[in-house]
Amino acid sequence: MEENLELNNKISDNVNEANSSEINVSKSEKINNQEKEININENSNNSKNSLVPKVDRKEDNDSPVKTIPKQIKEPPIEKKPFQEFINIHLIPALIEEINQRGLEINNINLKNTNRPIAGDKCWVINCEIKQTCNFWLSFEKEDITSLKSISLSKPNQKPSIIESFLIDEKRITLKLIISRVLQRLNGQKLIGVN
Prior knowledge:
This protein is of the alpha+beta class. Helices cover 43% and strands 18% of the residues. Strand 3 and strand 4 form a beta hairpin. Helix 2 crosses helix 3 (174-187).
């Protein structure tokens, strides 16, 4: 009986050992299987990712802010300094318009001098059109929006009339000044502008 008991104990120990090794084997198999699944998943993810190009993704906060400088809009020529407007824009434009009508300018200039007839000191554009007429366009101040007047005369004569010029206009432009000068010259039948 002792032998049987001892045999039973040995069998039971062997069964327990076998069960524990099976458990260890099954645990180890499960762990191996899980590792294989993880490796398979990683490999499949890597193969998917290898098809997609890698892009360095930086957070928006990391990239420097690019400031686009605003383009400075140049002011209209009428807003430029008085002498620049007169000498660079108005006088050349007047010369061109008068030349287009087949007339020739002998002399044209801007001076701070006495206005014809009135005699007060102001800015005066004096223009002498060859064998046609003279005109004086006067600006009370060094500003194209200041009070203006115009005087006309035939060649080699002094002006006898002074007229207001562009007094009702709210916005003075280069084209407006030129058109009104030509209108006054034509109104006196000094130039043939149609």
